Backbone:
């Protein structure tokens, strides 16, 4: 069996587990362990160069570890191999949990909304008003359609399980340390640049899928605002255009539209389900075609 070839039964089983059960408990979740490695390499020093080297070592060792775990899963007996690979692939994407996290942001209690939104964005939500909280929740949903759904399954469909695991390790490290802060500017730089590269194609594929549901509005928004962020702005602009609502992170970017209302979270989640359905169908088709080509 080619380790870089996807397998449709594994794909179908992993998607089924996600839709039925959501995320694994933290103690066994591979993504949690990917994140813990960031602490192991985080040695305090005043040298930016050493911090950069440590961050690079973290990135390479984390990706290599999960590549070899995926590689060695192919050496297992068939039934155990199937179970382990389904377990690993499921850990690379998140459909149900993303939906639930954003759904929790739909509340009339503004303090509860601030708490819920703070769980899915990095910005300070303590002083945000309701429209900006709704905007933040929809921005996170938009970006994560690519990061948490399309990208890992794209890499699985094209390059198999090892690629999906490498993508997830890179994206996880970027989410943890890929920030331009005093603590992470140099330590997280390698992870941030690797994540930029890894998401370049998936972000644009995601934007195109979103645009199917209101092509003119989405394309107009993409051309107007996609320059604001290398990758994330593509699905964000597409969703903003489809929904026709304002997306704004004060002092950073503003995608014009009407002021978002609480019902727009419902509209965003409905769009999310449609986009995920199309994305899963597309990835399934690629996997089946790949299998046909590999086994004529």
Residues:
């Amino acid at each position: 069996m080619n380790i870089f070839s996807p397998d449709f039964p594994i794909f179908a089983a992993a998607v089924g587990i996600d839709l039925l059960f959501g995320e694994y408990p933290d103690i066994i979740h591979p993504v949690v362990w990917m994140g813990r490695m960031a602490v192991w390499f985080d040695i305090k020093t005043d040298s930016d160069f050493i911090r950069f080297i440590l961050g690079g070592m973290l990135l390479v060792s984390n990706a290599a570890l999960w590549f070899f775990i995926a590689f060695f899963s192919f050496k297992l007996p068939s039934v155990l191999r199937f179970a382990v690979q389904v377990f690993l692939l499921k850990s690379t994407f998140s459909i149900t949990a993303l939906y639930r996290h954003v759904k929790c942001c739909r509340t009339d209690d503004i303090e509860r909304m601030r708490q819920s939104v703070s769980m899915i964005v990095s910005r300070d939500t303590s002083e945000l008003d309701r429209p900006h909280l709704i905007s933040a929740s929809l921005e996170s949903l938009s970006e994560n359609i690519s990061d948490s759904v399309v990208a890992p399954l794209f890499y699985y469909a094209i390059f198999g399980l090892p690629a999906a695991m490498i993508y997830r390790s890179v994206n996880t490290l970027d989410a943890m340390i890929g920030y331009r802060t005093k603590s992470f500017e140099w330590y997280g730089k390698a992870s941030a640049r690797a994540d930029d590269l890894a998401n370049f194609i998936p972000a644009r594929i995601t934007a195109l899928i979103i645009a199917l549901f209101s092509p003119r509005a989405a394309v107009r928004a993409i051309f107007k605002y996609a320059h604001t962020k290398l990758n994330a702005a593509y699905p964000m602009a597409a969703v903003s255009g489809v929904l026709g609502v304002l997306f704004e992170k004060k002092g950073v970017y503003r995608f014009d539209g009407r002021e978002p209302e609480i019902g727009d979270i419902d509209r965003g989640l409905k769009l999310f389900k449609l986009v995920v359905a199309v994305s899963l169908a597309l990835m399934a088709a690629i996997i089946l075609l790949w299998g046909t080509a590999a086994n004529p």
Notes: The chain is about 70% helix and 0% strand. Residues 218 and 241 are 4 Å apart (CA to CA).
